[in-house]
């Protein structure tokens, strides 16, 4: 692995200038490295972060990747990571014209990393430097504690998909001091109504008294101003309700407790981890948690990110005079990257075409009530107000949306019709013993639901503070229609029992029928089997296929490394 030479760096700097002229925004500094395909294989398990901590699973994946490469050699073009400065890796046999295309793709990725709000918590530090410091800490502990360090990493990685990523982003966008409820708001919204449960008449009198005190200035006084001046209003409140300060403090602490994810809660409340000989475990858990939070936005913006990079490498590359004579080569490479499969999902192709569709629709003024109220298909196709604001809209989307909101907001019937997209199904041809694919639906809602179902969505599992106060760690799975993967429950709960130092409970939902495979039934419920062409279907059979699953709550108990399952009445 080596830094690119000055000739290639000059090509990159030229691409930067053209990208900025087109509206992309990114920092000046960047690092580019030339790597071999085998270097890529060794870096891939560490998510292309060379300084990430060592872990035995990474080594296994490297061995697996090398074996796969022997059978199916491939030539990845580039990889870029979101650091300060951003680092990108390029194959060692790319010609100059291909580097021009790849550099535009990479710069669009960097623009996305540095402007999308879901990455905001990653903007203020260099992750590669932090990862190096973390790697040294883990290496130090490994020299002292031996294999126990790997056990802790494995236990922590078993729950690192449950981290409070959205709270982290929320804190970055709106700091804690702006999100905490003021004492004045607490007094009116919580204390009077829920704690004291005053009558409506008394509540309105208190509001009127406050408004009368604010009337001389004509402005609402802030809570800090009241407290700083010991205003008569709060003096009276303390005389009438001397407990208000204690109630307010307790309310804020409770809010903070409720916002903790499972890993945070264990690190703060585990009596086992509080022992002097075990405090090092917290450092390892914190490293695993911070690493997971750093990579969360990349998982949640895959379609948008790749679509954004693909649309810009296409638009900028075609205008670049340095590609003359290589238009056909570009067309071949670009088609391979952005081809739209009939079955399956290519995030590059889907994201790029959806951005193009949004630009076209907005340029024509189609995101308006007038257009939405048109029911004549011919008039819809000819509709054009020459609004011309499509480029502004996609920049706004790039800043504020993630994959879920992107798909849920902008996938429409026009998009499906334009690209002849559909939802496919699969059935077994028993005569030939082969799988047959068929068109299941051409409706936008069905296609949107299919895409959303492929997105990253970890289970929502939180700690029940009331039940955990009794001793065992009590986890509650918020059921959203999908059962947990039962194959992973035992190993994960063994790790949790060790970290908590006591037994662990997990409350979740499973199908009521214990004889059926819950995951197979779940698949059949959402994708009911379709009979072969010409096969008779009786009304009773069709009704049975569409019958919803009934769910029951169950409790998994892990105690002394033994798992027991009970039904909850």
Q: Can you put this structure into words, describing what you see?
A:
The protein is an alpha+beta fold. Helix content is 57%, strand content 11%. Strand 10 and strand 11 form a beta hairpin. The longest helix is centred in the middle third of the chain and has 22 residues. About 6% of the residues have low confidence. Helix 6 crosses helix 27, helix 17 crosses helix 19 and helix 19 crosses helix 22. The strands form three sheets. A five-stranded mixed beta sheet has the order 7-8-9-10-11. A four-stranded mixed beta sheet has the order 1-2-4-3. The chain is built from 29 helices and eleven strands. The protein folds into five domains: 148 residues, no CATH class; 73 residues, no CATH class; 78 residues; 114 residues, no CATH class; 109 residues, no CATH class. 25% of the residues are buried.
The number of distinct helices, counting runs of at least 4 residues, comes to 29
Label the structural class. alpha+beta
Largest sheet: 5 strands, mixed
Gyration radius (Cα, Å) is: 29 Å
> How many beta-strand segments?
11
Low-confidence stretches: 218-230, 518-527, 536-545
From the structure provided, what is the oligomeric state, counting identical versus distinct chains?
single chain
User: Roughly how many Å apart are the termini?
Assistant: 60 Å
Q: How are the strands ordered across the major sheet?
A: 7-8-9-10-11
Shape, please?
A: globular
Number of domains: 5
- The pLDDT mean sits at 85
Content of β-strand: 5-15%
Helix content: 55-70%
Q: Quick summary of this structure?
A:
The chain is of the alpha+beta class. The protein has helices at residues 6-21, 37-43, 56-71, 96-115, 127-145, 148-157, 165-173, 176-179, 183-195, 200-214, 223-229, 232-240, 244-258, 262-269, 271-274, 279-300, 302-319, 327-338, 347-363, 369-372, 377-382, 390-400, 403-410, 413-419, 444-454, 465-468, 486-500, 518-526, 539-545; strands at 2-3, 31-35, 78-81, 87-91, 423-429, 434-441, 460-463, 473-478, 504-511, 551-559, 562-567.
